[in-house]
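FAQ: What does the model actually see?

It sees only this:
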Amino acid sequence: MWHLTCAFYGDVAETRRSELEERLARTAKRHPVFELRFAGAGAFPRSTRATVLFVGVHAVTAAASGDVTPPETAEPAELHALAASCAAAGRRIGHDVEGRRYRPHLTLARAKSREPVDMRSVVEELRGYEGPSWTASEIVLMRSHLGADAHYEALARWPLRGHQA
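And it is asked to produce this:
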C-alpha cells in the first residue's frame, strides 16, 4: 500500500492509541482536501551514499493564467501543515515524534543490505519525472509490519474536510 508519511510515531502503546485516533480525527476535520503530484527524485541521506530512493511530492496549484505551476516550484504547503498537525497530535498524547524537517516523498526502494549505494545515475534519470496529480483526501493511521514479509496495515481512516466519498 502506497502512502505518504505525515508523522512517524514508532510504537504507540495500545492504551494511547484511542487518544491518538481522537486527535487525528479532529486534525482531519481541520484540514481540507488538496491536490498533489509526484515529480523529480532524490535519495536519502544523499545520492552518493543512499539507503533510500524516493520520488518527490509537490503541490498542484493554478497560476493566474490558469496554467499549472511547474511541480518543481510548487511547495506543498497544505501537506506541510497537515504533517505538522499530525506530529502535534502525537506530541499531545505524550508520544515522542521524529523532529526531523518534513520532506514529503514516496519511497521507491531501499538498499537491500542497508549498506549505502551510489544512486546518482538513477536520481538523474528521474529528475524530469512528472506524474499525474491526485487528491489527498484522508488521513490513515498505519502500522508497519517489518521483516521478510514487510507490509502495512491501515488501522483507522478519517476523511479530510470537504472530501466527497
